[in-house]
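can u do me a favor
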């Protein structure tokens, strides 16, 4: 491989990782599908990437991955461009949120739901994200949630 090609691939990988972790810009590579492995408690235990030519729906993904790994696990497709029931590229949102490790797959809602951070927070049925009982102040200051007092505390 030529040095320029290696650098180009590395740059693409870094951009993809930055996008994934910071979620500021959507990933526009449509050649891969992502699948979450779901355990017996409906928890996401891993997320893998599969070429669209191998699988681009639940049935194909489950068959392909179970054949690849010689298992009988449950796999659900997830979209890294879906967050809070909004598709970041303007398309149709898919399963409310991108599946992350420790998320729960809810078959009734057909949604990936993140772990509940605080007991007082309530699940928003539209976004399938947990929200505090008191809105986060929008004054430009930094705050942390105080669960004991159920309030935002300025840092």
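np, heres the sequence
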């Amino acid at each position: 491989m030529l040095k320029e090609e290696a650098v180009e691939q590395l740059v693409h990988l870094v951009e993809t990782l930055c996008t994934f972790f910071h979620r500021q810009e959507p990933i526009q590579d449509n050649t891969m599908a992502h699948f979450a492995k779901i355990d017996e408690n409906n928890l996401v235990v891993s997320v893998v990437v599969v070429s669209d030519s191998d699988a681009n729906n639940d049935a194909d993904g489950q068959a392909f991955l179970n054949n690849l790994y010689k298992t009988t696990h449950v796999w659900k497709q997830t979209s890294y461009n879906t967050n809070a029931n909004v598709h970041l590229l303007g398309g149709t949102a898919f399963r409310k949120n991108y599946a992350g490790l420790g998320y729960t797959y809810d078959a009734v809602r057909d949604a990936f739901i993140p772990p509940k951070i605080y007991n007082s927070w309530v699940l928003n049925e539209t976004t399938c994200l947990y929200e505090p009982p008191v809105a986060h102040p929008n004054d430009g200051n930094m705050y942390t949630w105080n669960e004991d007092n159920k309030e935002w505390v300025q840092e």
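The first strand starts at residue 32 and ends at 38. hope that helps!!
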